[in-house]
Sequence to fold (249 residues):
Amino acid sequence: MTTSTTIRPMAYTDMPILHGDWDKFADDRHTHLKRLGNVIYLQPGFFRNEDVKQLQNRKLIGLTAVDSTTDEIMGSCSLWFVGFQPEEVPWTEPGPEPESEIRWCEENAKILAELNAQPVDEARKEANAMIDSLDAMEDKDMKYWQSVLMPPGSKCIVVSGFSVLPQYRHKGVGGALLKWGTDQADRFGVHMWVHSSEAAVKAYSNAGFNVVGELDVDMDKYAPGPPPEGVDVPWGHYIIRYMKRLPKE
Fold:
């Protein structure tokens, strides 16, 4: 069953819902592993803080999907317009940042500072080091594919964020968000690419993206502890896919 969807520019007031109590990584085993360490982008509020900052960036477009009937927020997508002039980017002024968001960011910064100031025992140090080595390996791979997919002088659109609230998945919401981006890529005659999680591969494939590279992560090699299922279950392998979409003529 599809949902009637409207795509509009992301607003500051969307943040409490888009980054509220639901966990966008709840089904992602790779993220579960990384949470055994101290990866900065998995700390509380990181993505909300980043989205607030990016709303003022003229090279980044934040999109929100809302139900056309109820106006309920269903998901979001962030697009990075690489190599574009600011005046080319279909950016919309987000308006002044509400005092509520400013206060939230300040309070969250204090909470993170307190968490990071807590003493770390040897077991935690070892766990952090193992996850840091995983993160470093993946970052090296990402930089390689960035050099392949957008070498200096490139003009392209990168999907830098994509999520749909659980109750709205498999209803065409993700497709509507990606179509806004692919329409822009076709209009400008540029390619798009994305560093895809396992769960999102089908949505990108349906939008015309093709796999151009893979990173097979042996998660047990980097695991400082057992998975949620228990000590007798391996973490297994996780495939990160680099996907590219060429513009339609």
Summary: Residues 193 and 244 are 4 Å apart (CA to CA). Residues 5-245 form a domain with the Aminopeptidase fold (CATH 3.40.630.30). The chain has a mean pLDDT of 93.
